[in-house]
Automatic annotation (TrEMBL):
InterPro entries: Ald_DH/histidinol_DH, Ald_DH_C, Ald_DH_CS_CYS, Ald_DH_N, Aldehyde_DH_dom, Aldehyde_DH_Superfamily
GO terms classed as biological process: gamma-aminobutyric acid catabolic process
Protein name: NAD-dependent succinate-semialdehyde dehydrogenase
Organism annotation: Brevibacillus fluminis
Record has Oxidoreductase as a keyword: yes
GO molecular function per UniProt: succinate-semialdehyde dehydrogenase (NAD+) activity
Domain Aldehyde dehydrogenase positions: 8-468
Sequence similarity: Belongs to the aldehyde dehydrogenase family.
Listed Pfam families: Aldedh
Alphabetized UniProt keyword annotations: Oxidoreductase
Superkingdom per UniProt: Bacteria
PROSITE patterns attached to this UniProt entry: ALDEHYDE_DEHYDR_CYS
Keyword match Kinase: no
């Protein structure tokens, strides 16, 4: 617990377990409602001066944070792998992405421009200014325990907001390390505050408080909806980065080896525990056999095991509940006629005995009645679905309440425009399994969320407009 520039202790502790080995790797102090109220007060006092600093002053802090993160790159990558299981390769990527968010928003702070608007009366002048929204409560998930924080705190601090962060108690250690860095670079007291513990009391304190002007949440759609409802009482601004169910479409004119590589990257990074990962792989009938053969050949070569071992491409899953949920979807699909090309059984023996592992799995003959086609999987299972026409696949891809990421592979230029315009998703990757970058707005439509993170749009989430009309 880091409140008002100090590390504080409570009587309750939460154990942090390495999901690959079952070892307890650390303990953190758990906070409740009263400590969270204290953090909100500290953030409120800090807002009165932090919001008045210049963009350049704030940028200096953000650049210092970037430099410290650079120094600790490998240490942080290992910590992420130890606390949530993903492969060290994926964790290194996450650290790089974290650094990029602080760096980008250090510069973006300087580009918060207002505007002047031509008035209809000659004796009036109209100006529109941008101001930080106020105290922000940020809630983040375990699957990207470092970069999801950077995507919120980078722009919030750049905009002049102060923050209370509640990371997931499943993987809170990366957050603690980041706050050590905030302390080392001398961020003023109360500008950033960290509370870890049961989500109920912490979120109640956030929601009841009229000081907290904004909730920025990344997590499941179910919890996101609750928070939107609860925000209504004090009319807080909300940013919601919620669940996804990405279609990955391979058209008959696609470069098949490229599409196979893309599907592997999109599906199996972080052992499939990503909001943007391919959840339905639609393959055109004409190339279905060739694609599945090539995909199987590559997937069978993927190694699963402790993420710290450089040879493993897939690490552990977060916990047994995650493994069971994935396995239930596989069992459901098999019972309704799906065939297993590889994987499909839990890994429980030998090196896997003490951890939570699931093998990369390919299902074929998947159809609409199966749970996996509708519910987020959050695990390494690739369901292949055959399609025959462009209209049919677009209709199927859009027939879901989620609208986060989508992907398609084609070499037809007209189709590239047609399909990207028709997909009802916040993000579309064309021949690109990883269309996400710090410069571009990340986020979803429909039940996948509200607002954007990253890009110039990312900082707008933490700014409000003020119109000033002067009569001369
Ligand atoms: P989750 O919704 O269970 O938890 C997310 C965070 O909210 C955690 O800090 C958790 O402690 C907290 N939380 C849980 N219940 C709460 C409540 N009632 N009130 C307030 N806070 C509460 O999600 P998770 O299992 O940590 O993460 C996986 C989910 O996150 C998936 O659905 C995934 O798609 C989504 N996700 C989305 C994005 C995105 O950018 N759209 C990114 C990563 C993960």
């Amino acid at each position: 617990m880091y409140i008002n520039g100090e590390w504080l202790k409570t009587t309750e502790k939460i154990k942090v377990v390495n999901p690959a080995t079952g070892d307890i790797i650390d303990e953190v102090f758990a906070v409740g409602q009263s400590e969270t109220d204290h953090a909100i007060q500290a953030a409120s006092i800090a807002f009165s001066f932090w919001s008045r600093t210049t963009a350049d002053e704030r940028a200096v802090f953000l650049h210092k944070i970037t430099a410290k993160l650079e120094e600790k790159r490998e240490y942080l990558a290992e910590l992420i792998t130890k606390e949530m299981g993903k492969s060290i390769h994926n964790s290194r990527y996450e650290v790089a992405s974290t650094i990029s968010f602080f760096k980008w928003f250090a510069e973006e702070a300087r580009r918060v421009y207002g505007k002047t608007v031509p008035a209809s009366l000659s004796n009036k002048r109209i100006r529109v200014d941008k101001h930080p929204v106020g105290v922000v409560a940020a809630i983040t998930p375990w699957n990207y325990p470092l970069s999801m924080i950077a995507r919120k705190l980078g722009p919030a601090l750049a905009a002049g907001c102060t923050v209370i962060l509640k990371p997931s108690k499943e993987a809170p250690l990366s957050a603690v390390e980041l706050f050590r860095i905030f302390h080392e670079v001398g961020l003023p007291k109360g500008v950033v505050n960290l509370v870890i513990g049961q989500s109920g009391p912490i979120s109640q304190a956030f929601m009841n408080s009229s000081i907290v002007r904004k909730i920025s949440f990344t997590g499941s759609t179910e919890v996101g909806k609750q928070l939107i409802r609860q925000s209504a009482d004090t009319v807080k601004r909300v940013s919601m980065e919620l669940g996804g169910h990405a279609p990955f479409i391979v058209f008959e004119d696609a470069d098949i080896p490229l599409a196979i590589e893309g599907a592997i990257q999109s599906k199996f990074a972080s052992a499939g525990q990503q909001c943007v990962c391919a959840n339905r792989i639609y393959v055109h009938d004409k190339i279905y056999e060739e694609f599945s053969r090539g995909f199987l050949e590559k997937v069978e070569r993927l190694r699963v095991g402790n993420g710290l071992d450089e040879k493993n491409q897939l690490g552990a899953m977060i916990n047994q509940e995650g493994v069971e949920k994935v396995h239930e979807q596989v069992v459901d699909a098999i019972s309704k006629g799906a065939k297993v090309l590889c994987g499909g059984t839990r890994l429980t023996e030998g090196a896997y005995e003490k951890g939570h592992f699931y093998p990369p799995t390919i299902l074929t003959d998947v159809h609409e009645s199966m749970v996996i086609v509708h519910e987020e999987t959050f695990g390494p299972v690739a369901p292949l679905i055959r399609f025959f026409t462009e209209e049919e696949v677009i209709q199927k891809a859009n027939a879901i309440e989620y609208g986060l990421a989508s992907y398609f592979y084609t070499n037809d230029l007209s189709r590239m425009y047609r399909v990207s315009e028709s997909l009802e998703y916040g993000m579309v990757g064309v021949n690109d399994p990883f269309p996400f970058s710090v410069q571009a707005p990340f986020g979803g439509i429909k039940e996948s969320g509200l607002g954007r993170e990253g890009g110039s749009e990312g900082i707008e989430e933490y700014l409000s407009l003020k119109m000033v009309s002067v009569q001369m």
